[in-house]
Structure formats: C-alpha cells, structure tokens
C-alpha cells in the first residue's frame, strides 16, 4: 500500500515521502496514529503543490545547515568525567553531555541529532560523534574525554 508520510520515521522515510508498506502496517498503525495518509490521486496532487511551494524555504534551511557545518568542522570539544585510577569512567559519556558542551561554545544542537559512533564510551580518550544538521547535511565531530 502506498502512503504519504506526515513526519520523519527512522528506517522508513522522511516527511512527505511516498513509500510502500504492507497493508496491515499502514491501516493498523501509521494511518490511525496520524503518522501517514493514504496516497490517493488527490493526495498526491496536494503533496506536489505543497512541495513546490516549500522548495525555496528548504534551500535556505539547507544553506544555513551547511554554514553551521563549516563552523563545526574546526571545533573540538573536551568533556570531563570522573574516572578510576586505570582510566575507566564511572558511568558513561552520552549525547546530552556533547550537546551541553556545544551549547557552551554557541552551537545549539538537539541531542537527538547527535549519534556517537562508538556504542558506549567507558574510557578516557578521543572519540567521534556524528551530528545531523539537516537530512542531507551531516558533520563528524571529534571530542575528547578527559578525567576530572
């Protein structure tokens, strides 16, 4: 069944994408939850008109995201954590701490748009995080975890 997504869904598609899913998934979950609508001929025409009107706004948003990405490329952040004598961290470093550290440097990035390449950070060292500024603009940010 073809549907039009009303919001971004991980591993399925972005807002206003036309995707094909199984009938039960569409009828029992996506459409009743208000996440998607059926892709009828009239709905596709409305979608095409909306996309046409929104195209120039999206270009500006993407340009802003690319400008922020260029500024972020040179940034290196340091996160302090309590560690044992062997260098192991008590707890772990997560996206909240990265977002707070970026906010202190003047970059407002939501923590849900940050993903850490390593699953869990349990030792002091240098790591890489991926920041998604736009669906087409992603930046790799190096950060260092040091003991306090």
Q: Which CATH class of the largest domain is shown? A: Alpha Beta
Cross-sheet strand order for the largest sheet: 4-9-8-6
The whole-angstrom Rg is: 20 Å
What percentage of the residues does DSSP assign to strands (E)? 25-35%
Major sheet description? 4 strands, mixed
Number of strands: 9
Element order: H for helix, E for strand = EEHEHEEHEEEE
**Roughly how much helix do the residues carry, as a percent range?**
25-40%
Annotated CATH homologous superfamily of the largest domain: Ribosomal protein L9, C-terminal domain
Category from helices, strands and their pairing: alpha+beta
Number of helical stretches of at least 4 residues: 3
Give the overall silhouette. elongated
Number of structurally distinct domains: 2
Separation of termini?
A: 55 Å
Low-confidence stretches: none
Per CATH, which architecture of the largest domain?
Answer: Roll
Question: At the third CATH level, what is the topology name of the largest domain?
Answer: Ribosomal Protein L9, domain 2
Mean pLDDT: 89
């Amino acid at each position: 069944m073809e549907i039009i997504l009303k919001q971004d869904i991980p591993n399925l598609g972005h807002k206003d994408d036309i995707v094909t899913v199984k009938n039960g998934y569409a009828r029992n979950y996506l459409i009743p939850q208000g996440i998607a609508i059926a892709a009828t001929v009239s709905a596709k025409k409305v979608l095409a008109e909306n996309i046409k009107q929104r195209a120039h706004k999206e270009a500006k948003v993407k340009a802003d995201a690319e400008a922020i990405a260029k500024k972020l490329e040179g940034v290196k952040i340091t996160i302090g954590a309590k560690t044992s004598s062997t260098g192991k961290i008590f707890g772990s470093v997560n996206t909240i701490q990265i977002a707070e550290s970026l906010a202190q440097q003047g970059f407002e990035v939501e923590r849900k748009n940050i993903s850490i390449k390593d699953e869990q950070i349990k030792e002091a060292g240098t790591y890489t995080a991926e920041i998604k500024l736009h669906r087409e603009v992603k930046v790799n940010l190096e950060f260092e975890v040091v003991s306090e």
